[in-house]
SAM-dependent MTase RsmB/NOP-type domain-containing protein (Meristemomyces frigidus), 574 residues
Amino acid sequence: MSLYHESARLLTDSQAQKTSIKSLVYGKKTWKSDPKTLFALSTEAAKWSSVLSEVVERSGILKLERGLTPVLALVLVHDLLLARRGVALPATHGLHAAVLKHKARLTAELTKARLRRGCGSLEALRAMVEGLDGGGEGHVTDGDSGRDAVKPFRQPRWVRINMLRTTLEEQIAFTFKDYTVVASLHELSGAASKLLYFDEHVPSLIAIPPTVDITSTQAYRTGRLILQDKASCFPAYLLDPASTKGDVIDACAAPGNKTTHLAALLHEAQSSSTEIGQVIACEKDEARSQILEKMVKLAGGSEVIEVLAKQDFTKLNPDNKAYANVTALLLDPSCSGSGIVGRDQGAVVVHLPDINAVTESAVRGKKRKHSTPAAKQPSLQEPIAVEEEEVDAGNVEESSEKLKARLANLSAFQLRLLLHAMRFPAATRISYSTCSIHPEENEHVICAALFSHVARERGWRVMRRSEQVDGMRAWQKRGWKEACSKKIEEVGGDDFGDTNAEEVAEACIRCEKGSEEGTMGFFVAGFVRDEGFRGSTNGDAATSRQSHSHEGRLENGPEGQDDDDEWHGFEDEG
């Protein structure tokens, strides 16, 4: 049976391409497995992966069963331990037998994982996993008892009305005509009825209950509706691209939600101005370039967006006359993804077991199997052994060091990207964002760029809160002052009296993962510079756009080829 192999492939591709499981499942028709079953298994395995990777790793079965890969073990163990009907294979099948023979050990490790998380039962652990998947927990009043009880707050489904193809009024009149408008996000959590919430920060953004599926609607399938996390809409909206009256570069564009949002904002402004430019979308990965091109086409953005497939943004020459009219840039670079909430709308984070990590507990368990009488086997309910906790402490320290090194590499790349953007001579606005909660990728990068030589030389400064568009100015959660202060001191920014940590922190926007504002963890900040610093455009906008050719623009290879697989609509990016 191909179900488990296809699910393993889905999880691998979702991680590699940073796209959603749903997009991959319904984006083509060649799966041998039933798409609904495949989608359900893959999303549930991803949701449980932080627990199951720990179970598989500690059991040591990857050392014993050479035919199992980490991701294949993940989906098989999910069904073995958690699925109502178990593994959907005959017991004699090789894959089923490979995990079934270790069921006792795997069950024991699941129990230990549950106890480590302070859950008294499997149902409590399930509720915890579901709560994390839904966006965390919040205080909800228990109507019957009148007392406060902690219940999971499930994130809503955010839907951006694609103004390239439709209007908010049209969608309210047709797609959402049977929906009831509510006044708060909390009314959507767990609701099974058709409810609708109008966002107060981002225009043309609405929310519906997480239980309501709109992916089968014609509006979604034709690109009129785009599933996009609220926080993911902040970068394009903060940039306010139409205000610069020039071209806009999206430096890391795939899968295309922010790209099409930029295009929609430009499109809306065209009715009152003839000087609006176009979006130049860069994507260096070939597979993701194909996804980007398909999404741009479906969204109706082909006339506004030029896709530079397989193009590394850092390889563009800012002084090339083809970019003389680039007045704004959107940067959403690769990051740790630590703010992503595990939802089926977007790319998921899949935790995989380490094939080389055979823990001390697994070794002791193997010895007990041969030397300890069955009557003396430890109960699954007994407390965790002290020596096991000591092993855990070592692993935590190692993970912390690995994370520190990874964040250092990521922030170095992110800063390089930002400094490169500051070199475009006509640019006056930049937005920088990550789906990370770590200050190393956020405030630290902003401060390092702000006090860099290129920023000082070319007049770049942080976009103050008072200068931000209304919805972003009204957002209450701002940057971390302590992180800004630490980095400013580190880079010698105290020598400049015109900028301080409080001002920079207030200019930064943060979204909290698991809060009742219904967003993933996210960070965005803007940079601006006055017109006096703007370089020569080397010609007017028409001349600039006329030079937008593959010969003059693509410096890193030809465009990606078309993909004939069917596409069913948009998903949120991570």
Q: What stands out?
A: The mean pLDDT is 80. The CA atoms of residues 338 and 436 lie 5 Å apart.
